[in-house]
DNA sequence: AATGGACAGTTACATTTGTGACCAACAGTG
DNA sequence: CACTGTTGGTCACAAATGTAACTGTCCATT
């Protein structure tokens, strides 16, 4: 019978690695701020772009709109972001970080970057190759074409 | 303000890639057999090792025991696997694939391997580097040390 | 302006997953 | 043997996520 070694199977390994890295990364923002991943993504996106609609956040951070909606509400209740209606299109709301939100963002970002750097440093010379390969994978897995269609 | 580009951030990219690849992979077994990922992992593990306890499956496939328990039940109801009590330890049950289960396994495995091969072929010469880098990442992310602690 | 389709965002409901309690069986100690 | 702690597995409940319907708004056509 043809066999498959699960532990060597690429989709499985990718999932496992992604989960483990995410889990470790949680130690960066978890203990201090108790964020979920969707909340972190919204925070990161708003920190990066200043002002944005929920729709645009979902597109950029590859999340389904309900996930964004819930994360936005949670962050709003925490007073980390504020909504204001858009003048151009009254269906959408423009979201921006409050000063509290920016403060949290400024606290987390250096830690996040340090975390990433540590990971890449540990990879040593292979780091560059990994990043190149991931870029290819992103294209192959048609992530570019989907633009937010992960939505999981 | 220090910024972070989410789309270039390693944990985010890994998650996104893993999700996209898993999603694509689903097209391999989804349309024909309608398996969930946990079910696929149990099937793959039993196909690989013939007979195993639920605990051992969880360890090998990095799943929490409740997830395994549910997947096992689903496969049992589908008559793809059978349980029998262990002689050595009457707490555990030895799980094996039925002939139906083996048949499904034999149908899916070649497709899975072809899927993986296609992915690696598309990566071209970078494929080997990716696999090497992933191996390193697996060690760095302490996956080896955890042995099933993903459990998500 | 009135009609109808598309779209941003929320909500309700269903499904999946995680957490902790639990049961029965083990294993060691006295 | 009891007694205690641990372990394989399940179950009930809670939390997270996906799906689909719905609201209000936009926009194109009439």
TrEMBL record, chains A, B:
Keywords: DNA-binding. It comes from Microvirga lupini. The keyword DNA-binding applies. GO terms for molecular function: DNA binding; DNA-binding transcription factor activity. Pfam families: MarR_2. This is DNA-binding MarR family transcriptional regulator. The keyword Disulfide bond does not apply. Coiled coil: none annotated. PROSITE patterns: HTH_MARR_2 (PS50995). InterPro entries: HTH_MarR-typ, MarR/SlyA-like, WH-like_DNA-bd_sf, WH_DNA-bd_sf. One of its GO terms (biological process) is response to stress. It comes from the Bacteria. Residues 7-145 form the HTH marR-type domain. PANTHER family: MARR-FAMILY TRANSCRIPTIONAL REGULATOR (PTHR33164:SF57), TRANSCRIPTIONAL REGULATOR, MARR FAMILY (PTHR33164).
């Amino acid at each position: 019978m043809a066999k498959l070694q699960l532990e060597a199977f690429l989709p499985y390994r990718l999932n496992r690695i992604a989960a483990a890295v995410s889990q470790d990364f949680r130690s960066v923002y978890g203990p201090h701020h108790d964020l979920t991943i969707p909340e972190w993504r919204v925070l990161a996106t708003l920190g990066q772009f200043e002002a944005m609609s929920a729709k645009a956040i979902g597109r950029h951070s590859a999340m389904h709109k309900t996930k964004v909606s819930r994360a936005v509400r949670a962050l709003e209740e925490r007073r980390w972001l504020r909504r204001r209606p858009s003048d151009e299109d009254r269906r959408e709301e423009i979201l921006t970080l409050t000063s509290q939100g920016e403060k949290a963002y400024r606290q987390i970002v250096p830690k996040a970057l340090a975390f990433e750097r540590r990971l890449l440093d540990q990879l040593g010379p292979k780091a560059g190759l990994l990043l190149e390969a991931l870029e290819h994978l992103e294209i192959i897995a048609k992530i570019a074409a989907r633009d937010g269609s992960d939505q999981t």
